[in-house]
Amino acid sequence: MDIKTAKWAPDRPSTAVTAFLKRTAFDPVAEEAARNVLDEIRLNGDAAVIKCIREFDGVTLKPTEFRVSMTEVAKARDTVTPAFRNAARETHKRVTAFARQGMKKDWKMFTPKGGELGEQFVPFDRVGIYIPGGAAPLASTVFMTVTLAKVAGVPEIVACTPSDAKGAVNPYILYALELAGATEIYRMGGIQAIGLMAYGTKTVRKVQKIVGPGGAYVTAAKRHVYGDVSLDSVAGPSEIAILADETAPAECVAADLLSQAEHGTGQEKALLVTNSNALAAAVAIQLVQQAETLSRKAAIQKVLEKGTLIVTVNTLDEGMELCNQFAPEHLEIMVREPRSWLRKVRSAGAVFFGTWTPEAAGDFVAGPSHVLPTGGTASMFSGLTVDDFRRRTSFMAFTRADLQETLPVIEEFGRVEGLDGHARAARIRFEVS
Q1: FRET pair for 212, CA 20 to 30 Å: which of 147, 304, 389, 432?
Q2: Active-site entry in 330, 332, 359, 370
């Protein structure tokens, strides 16, 4: 297999690079399917959810069987390996520490005349979290979502994740959900899970916000329910860009590109940008060789054929410009003095510096959430944080002197905007006191 390559410069654009950059975060087929399914769930509630689970997941459930029982959770606890329990506890500890450190604090300032202004942060009452479990049981996503909600202080944390054909949920996901702090677990995925959480049914109460990654259909469903609930961001098929020079080991660069290609949808994107022709050639060889050794070879082959590109540039600065235009979910910088490049990153979900920071560390254990914007939306959105599970409320407390000082400003804006009632609401206080 030949890996696609191209040369690029800001003043000499490449058709191959332009086509690669013009991916979309949205699938029109998925958009139409999501609209139809969600309309049915909104109208028919539990009955529509049952129909969708049977049609899409091949499982027949009653509404009383939607929720995973405590008995099943306890069984999962005994099923998972001791090694995974240790790994899960370590990831949970690190994600918790990062989330606590990143929480914004309530704050206030004084006005010129002795009043107070400020902001306070209050957790949502009930949130919904989607955990993918189809192509791969993403137990790590549990910690990158549910843990943040728990640290934020959300009292009701609803999790939806697909089951197998017998209605059983992966025990590793169940163990992770219990450890991270989920309060309700439902055995369903796809559009129907988003509809259930967004609209609610007789069996399940609606949530206030939905977060979590998913495939094209989950992404489309989340877009459609925006307004009925709050959302995190668009998090669809995975993607990675690597900016590398001749110091980067070709074996490591190729392995990191393949780590995102193996997710399984076939829509993943992997981009290498380098100023070294030798590295570009070596990575192309390594991609083919290493792909043959991986268990998800069939899924990876699709991405190597359609979603992988190696681009050579004249300078690393030009390479960084291209990476910013790509706006990747994950950006690895494998060059001399990699951390000196941070200020040049304008659009990326998360950045990984140096040979010893593979993207996989961010996926599984480092601390920041791996729920990140994809499809170029890193130019507009940021990754999931603990504060996505809290509402920000500003507050104001004027003194009489504050209002007196600002009264001319209020009255002038009231005049210009034709809102004399606003002006009167401020003036009348001095007339009656």
Answers
A1: 304
A2: 330
Q: What is the pLDDT of residue 135?
A: 64
Regions of the chain with pLDDT less than 50: none
Look-up of token digits 């600065």: 317
- The strands making up 184-187's β-sheet, listed across from edge to edge, are 184-187, 156-161, 126-130, 209-211, 230-231
What's the pLDDT at 50?
Answer: 97
Query: Cβ contacts of residue 52 below 8 Å, gap of 6+?
Result: 37, 40, 41, 190, 191, 192, 195
pLDDT at position 235, please?
A: 72
Active site residue 370: no
330 is catalytic: yes
Q: What is the pLDDT of residues 254-292, one digit of tens each?
A: 999 999 999 877 789 999 999 999 999 999 999 999 999
One of 178, 239, 262, 329 is an active-site residue; which one?
Answer: 329
Domains of the chain by range and CATH?
A: 5-25+236-366 (3.40.50.1980), 28-231 (3.40.50.1980), 398-432 (no CATH)
Return the beta strands (E) in 258-339 as ranges. 269-274, 308-312, 330-334
Dump strand ranges (E) for 152-238: 156-161, 184-187, 209-211, 230-231
